[in-house]
Amino acid sequence: MLKTRVIVLILLGVLVLIVGIGLISGYNSLVNLDEDINSKYSQIEVRLQERHDKIGQIVQSVQGLQDHELAVYQAIVDARTAYANANTQDELIAADALEAVSLANLLVVMENYPSIAAAGSYYMLIDEVSSMESSLAVARRDFNEAVQDYNASVRRFPRVLYAGIFGFDKSVEYWKMNDGADEVPVIEFD
Amino acid sequence: MVQMKSQSSNLINIKKILSIYILFTILIVLSACQKNEYPRPTNAFYINDYANILYEATRDSIRREGERLYENTQDKTDGGTQLVITTFEVKEIDDISNYDKTDLYRQWRIGDDDMGVLVLLFFKPYTENDIEYLELVETQIELGYRMEQYISPTQLGVIIDNTLYSDEWDDLDLAVMNMEYELLSAIYVDVYNYESFDYSMSVFQEYLINNPDTSYEEPIPMSLILFLLSPFSTWGEKLSAVLPILFVFILGGGFIMNKGGGGSSGGAGIFRRRR
Predict the structure, then answer these.
(1) Are A189 and B153 in contact (CB < 8 Å)?
(2) Number of folded domains in chain B?
(3) Range of B235's domain?
(4) Which pTM value belongs to this model?
(5) What string of DSSP letters covers B1-31?
(6) Looking at residues A71-82, what average pLDDT do you find?
(7) Which domain holds residue A168?
């Protein structure tokens, strides 16, 4: 009788140990995945801030266009305002798309003015913009990959249980951009 | 009868183990193939001329300069910079989109602490008078995360325009080497506060003229491997072929084998296309 009780206790102890180790490792793994998303998100924020500042410099450097291309300028102003007022991820995504589109439109307009397009500074500007957009595209992709890893992980058994127990989000929203809004400009030479 | 049964069950077990082993091997090979979507860097690392368009003298100069830069900067703040140049041949310009400079940079892990520069040169074949040539159609440069704070895209653009796309050079090797020197100059001066980085294109031009070899030097020639595997050569002959190489390998510190410093990048850099 005593022997059976000891065996049952040992088995229970082993079971508790296995479940405990599983819980700790599952929790730590979810924390790592969650932190990865946070780090990738802050990378996007840094890149967006860089672009926001750069757009300000670009607008200042082509002041002369303002009188002729009012609509393009207004779009840039709106996009910058949307970015400045963005508080949630959805608002930030919308502002990101607006800035990308307004910047692309500005470059198209600038290309139509030979005096500006012929200047060396125009190509420097394109270099800066293409680098900026490329960095942003990579930051968005890294974030989405981190989200994909997290979302897949929390839906798998037994992590789906751990996520519920420890109060982790069941899924995190992807950074979705409209088609073409995150295209990287490429300079072409004759 | 019992012994026969046990032998046949042993055979079945061995077959099972073998089939599981083969399955695992195939899975491992397949997963490795899936991971390596880009070619591995060559042993020279600092120059990977997959388009096979540069002279050996140019490749050798780029490798030596790359090694020198890495050694010279390793002990400095934000040190261990690696400058890597790679050429690819593409059938059509659209095929360039199959290459992602950031993915390649991360896979090759260029530069210690993200201090690296990766230059990608894309070439497309064209035919003139029934002879096939390669022309440079696009240049891409990727900066490591930490390198971004030292070298701007504008600076990279100016370097590319004044070297690779300059009318000064009608020879690709000279243009590429000029770009390498100018990038080195930017790194030595702007990152590590050297007063200047001096180089002479005429010295390199002379070196190029005196070393017109275009062939790659394989660390282990294929002919040697075939010789070692051949049933027509004796063990004595095989040993006499291998021993001198081993001697050189041990005394000479081994074959050239450069590798990435573990760096990563975030997409900053430039794109230049020739219409």
Answers:
(1) no
(2) 3
(3) 222-251
(4) 0.78
(5) -HHHHHHHHHHHHHHHHHHHHHHHHHHHHHH
(6) 82
(7) 39-190
